[in-house]
Amino acid sequence: MHTRLPEYLKRPIIDTDTTRQVRRALKEYCLNTVCENARCPNKNECYTKNTATFLIMGKNCTRNCKYCNITCAKPDPLDFSEPTHIAKAIKGLGLKYAVITSVTRDDLEDGGAGHFAQCIKEIRKISADIKIEILTPDFKNNKTALNTIINAKPDVFNHNIETVKEIFKTARPQGNYESSLEVLSYIKQNSNITTKSGLMIGLGETYNQIKSTMNDLKNAGCDILTIGQYIQPSKMHLPVAKYYTPEEYDTLKQMAKEAGFSHFQIGPLVRSSYNASELIK
């Protein structure tokens, strides 16, 4: 078990006019971001690029994943003005690429798919040119919910596998590895939407297990892959088994190429929506 954070995983605090502008917009429209709620290490870098990953459907999650900093508690009722507020914030910030994610809402019949669709619709009203990436839960692999997403036509559909098959149940007790692959596969087979998935490393997985996961994702029709270091949010969360060195990330990049990925972002501080707009070019 490792407790000391290597220097290359530390990020300076940046405070500029742009980061303040992003924070102001979030406050003005009462919006949540995964940047703040999940304590993302790239938050300030993204804010300086005038981007943020919006977290919809409240701050409370119905699942208790052992790596995640988002609170597992009874969720709030849906705020039906949220899609309009998100669209206004995106317009106010002049974003060309918006990433929208959510807590998992197993309490809702469609898992919140309709709310995602409404957000996409409101953003499209503002501008047809804004690229929209959604990072969704698995919707319990509900095909009706997935069809709602397909019909909303996001540019990129992202659903994270998060970890290798052997560690999946420990990290995501309420999720299912095969089910997550099926979600990606269903979107790919029934639309021309770009698909994306990511995993965290450092939970005790082996290179062979990472390789198998890459192959599984590729076979599910996943177009874009992201891999980054797991950083323990608190002592209550899963411990870090290993900090990968920058050289080891080069090995992983080579493995991704061999698995057939031409679009990937692999590095210590890579998170699911980090430099998202660059990856679809």
Strand content: 5-15%
Helix content: 25-40%
Can you say what the CATH homologous superfamily is?
Answer: Aldolase class I
Distance between the termini: 38 Å
Radius of gyration, in Å, reads 18 Å
Bulk shape: globular
Q: Spell out the helices and strands N to C.
A: HEHHEHEHEHEHHEHEHEH
Question: What is CATH's topology name?
Answer: TIM Barrel
Sheet bearing the most strands, described? 8 strands, mixed
State mean pLDDT (0 to 100 scale): 85
Number of continuous helical runs: 11
Number of strands: 8
Regions with little confidence, pLDDT below 50 for 5+ residues:
none
Overall structural domain count: 1
Structural class: alpha/beta
Please identify, by name, the CATH architecture: Alpha-Beta Barrel
